[in-house]
Amino acid sequence: MATVAGTIRKTKTVFNWAKKQRWITESPLMGIADGSSRNPANDRNVTMEEFHKLLDACPDQEWRVIVTLARIGGLRPCEIMILRWSDIGIGEQKNRIHVFSPKLNRHEHLRNREIPLFPILGTELDKLRSTPGHEEEEYVINRYSRNGCAVLVAPLDKIAVKSGIGKIVRPFDNMRASRSTEVHRDYGAMAESLWLGHSKEIAKECYLMVTDDDYAKAAGQKKSA
User: Fold this and answer.
1) Which residues pair with 185 in a beta bridge?
2) pLDDT in tens, 161-218
3) 143 and 83 within one domain
4) Do 202 and 174 belong together in one domain?
5) 37, 118, 150, 157: which sits with the fewest CB atoms below 10 Å from its CB?
6) Which domain holds residue 47?
7) Which strands make up the sheet holding 96-100, listed edge to edge?
8) pLDDT tens across 130-144, in order?
9) Same structural domain, 140 and 207
């Protein structure tokens, strides 16, 4: 269904463009709903326990920061790869990170956002900054090309297998969704939208999940670690 929904959206775009060019009077898909682009079978809540296992399996501090930016910061791979040290510790209290999103560059009101410098994130960034060879670097992550974010997926698959939690389908999307769900629960819809960099509608459609802990809490049971 996700593939069908995506195809309908793209086809609608083509027909709407043709209408603007006055090649057609109406789109033949007018009134047809897109459907959901989400496939629940691919959803996975990457728990904090699994996050720490991923960290332990990382080959070096740079990869620990990549995983932490994705799971705790909620950053997209393209945002991780262009994050600069000058973006970290901004604001009056030095407690924020500035995030620029290439994916949303065409949307002036969405391309820039600020997220909290979460304690776990700050700890891992400080460790990387103090690693020999990183003192004078402009960018936080320097081992991969900034034009090919997909290059992060294969190494992360190996880390996930090594950690014992197994391969994660759409690992960066699911880490982002896991953080989105936590932020929405702990800080509310407005903070989730601002910190993750998407609308409340997109959050509901693509990211927010009902987790095992939600079921346990509703049933009066103890939450998992």
Assistant:
1) none
2) 999 999 999 999 999 999 999 999 999 999 999 999 887 787 778 788 888 888 888 8
3) yes
4) yes
5) 150
6) 42-216
7) 88-90, 96-100, 112-116
8) 988 777 789 999 988
9) yes
